[in-house]
Write a structure and sequence with these properties.
Radius of gyration: 18 Å
Structural class: mainly beta
Strand order of the largest sheet: 3-2-1-24
Number of helices: 4
Number of strands: 24
Low-confidence stretches: 1-77
Length: 349
């Protein structure tokens, strides 16, 4: 079984049972997320004319090239959110962009035979890294493209990899790579010129790396064979590792803010996945969402005062929507409302 599909199945049970068959095969990190796909094809990403037109109005490319925060859907000074979406009618997943204030989402990729998932903004907002996969979840690897959907480039040596994360200086991409039956954390040059370096060597699954603001550390979640997952921190200069959360935890998908806090999703005693925040040294742990729903894949706003995340998704009949919430847990706002599964949002730095 492909490692990425296996991971989706194994970690599917946040809150309610994800089920078997098609729903279970779509589980990624926590809950079902849409691991569908038809026969793989090597073709390039195809961007629809409508997407290009709307993307131009969102200034996803030109304003980013100028170093300015793009105006998105009329929200001055705010930066767009990119995410993966699938619907019951579509055979694949594609990348979309959205204003932090909500509104219509803009489709950035349209590939009928392969899926694009797990997007990550470059720090200058000029490119996106993402995972591309085809039939049965077989992972094609990590690719990058510009924010209009062009200049598609494969990152060498990343076949089967997942969870790309761009470094703060824009020079490197960290990711999880299969090694035997588990995944380890690697880092490689973002332009493909620097060879990949393996950073972890464990019998567990190391997943979802996220960079510290100064680029000196990575945090990630480590999942053991007992079904637990905890947050870990790795110092890049020495490869020394320290635990951030406890060994009996169910903690997933950390995201490191510019204000030096880690947001993550925890399946707690309620049986649901909720968002939590903790300092990188393990202190200051507190919960910020408490709905009877599964909240996962948090991503910090550039200012560090809000988060975007996915809520919902027990099975195919339960859509997953993007929400925004303040860092203190107040003012939760639903951003997407279509009958779709909206996943793995990344808020442009």
């Amino acid at each position: 079984m492909d490692a990425l599909v296996h991971r989706r199945q194994r970690t599917a049970g946040a809150g309610r049972t994800a089920g078997t068959g098609r729903s279970a095969a779509r589980a990624r990190d926590i809950g079902p997320t849409g691991a569908r796909g038809t026969a793989p094809a090597p073709g390039r990403v195809v961007v629809t004319a409508a997407a290009i037109a709307v993307a131009a109005s969102l200034t996803l490319g030109a304003a980013a090239d100028a170093g300015a925060a793009p105006a998105v859907a009329g929200v001055t000074g705010e930066r767009p959110i990119v995410f993966a979406r699938y619907t019951g009618a579509a055979p694949t997943e594609d990348l979309y962009a959205l204003s932090p204030g909500g509104g219509a989402a803009v489709q950035l990729t349209h590939t009928p035979t392969v899926s694009e998932v797990m997007p990550s903004w470059s720090p200058d907002g000029k490119r996106l890294a993402f995972v591309r996969y085809g039939s049965g979840g077989a992972v094609d690897g990590i690719w990058t493209m510009n924010t209009a959907g062009g200049d598609l480039k494969a990152l060498p040596g990343t076949k089967g990899a997942s969870d790309p994360a761009w470094s703060p200086d824009g020079k490197r991409i960290a990711y999880a790579q299969p090694v035997g039956t588990q995944r380890e954390i690697y880092v490689a040059g973002a332009d493909g010129s620097a060879p990949a370096t393996r950073l972890t060597h464990t019998a567990a699954d190391d997943l979802h790396p996220t960079w510290s603001p100064d680029g000196k550390y990575l945090a990630f979640n480590r999942a053991d064979t007992a079904g637990h997952s905890r947050l870990m921190k790795l110092r890049l200069s020495t490869l020394a590792q320290t635990a951030v959360t406890g060994p009996g935890s169910h903690d997933w998908t950390p995201d490191w803010s510019h204000g030096d806090r880690l947001a993550f999703s925890r399946v707690d005693s309620s049986g649901f996945a909720h968002l939590y925040v903790v300092r990188p040294d393990g202190t200051g742990l507190h919960r910020i969402t408490a709905a009877r729903a599964n909240d996962k894949n948090p991503s910090w706003s550039p200012a560090g005062n809000s988060l975007v995340f996915t809520r919902g998704g027990a099975d195919d009949a339960d859509p997953e929507h993007l929400y925004r919430v303040r860092a203190d847990g107040t003012a939760p706002t639903q951003l997407t409302k279509t009958d779709s599964h909206d996943l793995e949002a990344d808020w442009r730095p």
